[in-house]
Amino acid sequence: MMISSDDASIGAIVKGVDLEGVEKVSSLRALTKGGSLKPLTYEPGKPMTVLLGCELASRLKVGPGSKVTLTTPLRGVDRGTPSTAKQSFVVVDCFDSGFFEYDSRLVILDLNAALQFLGRGPEVRWIELRFEDLFISDAMQPVIASALTPFTLVDFAKDVVAIRNGIDKVIEDNLSDNRAKSVQDLQVATLSAQQSLEYSSAAFGPTQRYRIVDWKEMNENLFSALRMQKVVLVLFFLIIVVVAAFNIVGTQLIVARERVKEIATLVALGASKLQLMRVFVVHGFVLGLAGVIVGLVIGRLVVWGIQALDFGLDPQVYLITKLPAVLHWKDVVTIALSSLVVVFLSCVLSSWRATRLNPVDGLRKVV
Fold this sequence. Notes:
Layout: E1 2-4, E2 9-11, E3 13-17, H1 22-25, H2 28-31, E4 48-53, H3 54-60, E5 67-75, E6 83-95, H4 100-103, E7 106-110, H5 111-118, H6 137-148, H7 153-174, H8 183-198, H9 215-218, H10 220-258, H11 260-268, H12 273-309, H13 315-318, H14 329-355, H15 359-366
């Protein structure tokens, strides 16, 4: 569909919404500049109104009170008589969702105005649902499908009869002559019936008349990019952790070399290898713990700074208008514990290497 102004013409997506129910499934009203959807209400005999994404309005160089023209080649397509239609609309406001894909393409009409413009009568092609927990959308899809297309016991019985009739027909066609049939012939006929039914319309379950699309599927491109970015970040930070672990091991070994006299003295006084390892493990772990705490504090300050400064991004590149910064304490705890585990293992390795030093060399230095 095309939307035009005096200065530009842009491809757009038109969406008709029920103004009374839209607030139950979206925050559209809060996203508008004026904070109200009442000017969008369709009144027969008066000019139709539209709500544009602010980015789209900027590209069209229009504002509240400006006129735009919508052109569609699909008017009446549901009735088998598609035709091209043009309609003039008055812009009443714009909305800013923070997502460039929507702000640059979406045109919102009152549902009644959209039905009138598209010539579809009372039929709608899209229904939105909203859950309190958005992560249950996958589990709710079968429930919604069964509610839209119920599958009763009568339907089940009809499917069973259809499949049985199909099997009988295929077997009868394969065993039509009167000669005696072997077990192998019966197996071949049964297999043929099975293969025939796999490509027929006889099957259990309701006919899918509706397509159910959740928020993850609608934004698949964005989530694919985020997943790839997450993998890259995990690999990047893994390299940092490995380098840090080698630094800890190297530092501990240097400390052990520098304190070979003290190690020799402790061994001469009867210290065991386990006690020596404990000294180095505690020393390294305390340093690592201090580093983790400092890192957590700096990270929290960085997140706070991003939230306070509100870094802007180019939406044409990043699809979003600002850099989001949200602190998930579960991730913080996981990363902190993982870092401490790496620190501990590094300390154990370096302390084990330290206990393998020859204490005689240290005693010579003492003498």
